[in-house]
Amino acid sequence: GESVGLHLPTLSVQEGDNSIINCAYSNSASDYFIWYKQESGKGPQFIIDIRSNMDKRQGQRVTVLLNKTVKHLSLQIAATQPGDSAVYFCAENGDTGNQFYFGTGTSLTVIP
Amino acid sequence: DTGVSQNPRHKITKRGQNVTFRCDPISEHNRLYWYRQTLGQGPEFLTYFQNEAQLEKSRLLSDRFSAERPKGSFSTLEIQRTEQGDSAMYLCASSWGQGAQDEQYFGPGTRLTVT
Predict the structure, then answer these.
(1) Which of A55, A106, B54, B65 has its CA 20 to 30 A from that of A82?
(2) Quick one: which of A49, A101, A42 has its CA closest to A75?
(3) CB atoms A98 and B43 under 8 Å
C-alpha cells in the first residue's frame, strides 16, 4: 500500500498561535491530496484539498503547501482556536486515483 | 452533521457472529466508500461503489467481508464469522462525481467491538 506518514504524532500550541502540521507521502503518482480533521467520536471532516499542479492553496485560516520534489505536504492553521483541537490526517489518492490513503494522524491540542 | 448516516453507531458482538452495518449516503451522491479505522490510525480504504456497481476492493477486504449497494442508494457491509481483529470503527463516505477528486463526506461511523 501507500505510505503516508506524519512527522509528529502530537502538537500543542497556544491559542492564537499558528500551527503547522506536516505530512510525507511516498507515491509520486498521487495527484490529489486532502487534509481532514477528525474530532472525537466523529468521522473525518474535509478541510482543504490541493491538486498536484499547484504548490499552495489557501482557505479560511488554513493553507496547504505541496512540495512534490520531496513529497511533502503541510497544513498551516492561522490563529489557532480551541475548536481546532482534533486529529488531522493527510490523504493521497495513490495509483488508481480511486482510493485514498491516509496517514496516521497528528493530534493537535490548543491550549487556551 | 454531513448528511451521511450510519447505523448502528455501536455494535458489540461475540467472536464468530455475523454483523451487518448500514450506510445512508447523501441522496444525490453516486459514489459510496467504506473505510476501516483502528485506534490511533487513519482510515483504511475497503471498497467503493459507483451507483450500484462495486468497482474496487482493497486486499484488506477478506472473503468474510461483503458489501452491497443494491439500488445505488444505501449500502450494507457484512462481516461474517467476526474475529477480534475486526474490532474497529467502520466509516462510510459518499461523494458526487466521476473521480476521486471529489469531496468525500464521511458519516459518524459504526464502532465494532468483538469480544
Answers:
(1) A55
(2) A49
(3) no
State the sign of the Cα–Cα–Cα–Cα dihedral A26, A29, A30, A32.
positive
Q: Are β-strands B44-50 and B53-57 bridged in parallel, bridged antiparallel, or unpaired? A: antiparallel
Three-state DSSP at A83 gives helix
d(C-alpha A14, C-alpha A28), whole Å:
35
Query: For testing the chain A interface, which of B4, B104, B105 should be mutated: the one with the most A CBs within 10 Å?
Result: B104
- How is residue B73 annotated by DSSP? S
Closest CA in chain B for residue A106: B40
Spatial separation of the C-alpha atoms in residues A112 and A35, rounded to whole Å: 24
Distance from CA of B102 to the nearest CA of A (A): 10
Helix (H, G, I), strand (E, B) or coil at A24: strand
Is B93 close to A43, i.e. CB distance below 8 A? yes
Cβ–Cβ under 8 Å, residues B44 and B89: no
- pLDDT per residue as tens digits for the range A29-79: 899 999 999 998 889 999 999 999 999 999 999 999 999 999 999 999 999
Q: Which residues contact A102 (CB under 8 A, 6 or more apart)?
A: A4, A36, A89, A90, A91, B41, B42, B43, B44
A 10 A CB-CB count for A30 gives 22
Of chain B, the end-to-end C-alpha distance in Å amounts to 30
- Grade residue A104 by pLDDT with cuts at 50, 70 and 90: confident
Handedness of CA B86, B92, B93, B99 (dihedral sign): positive
Name beta bridge partners: A38: A87
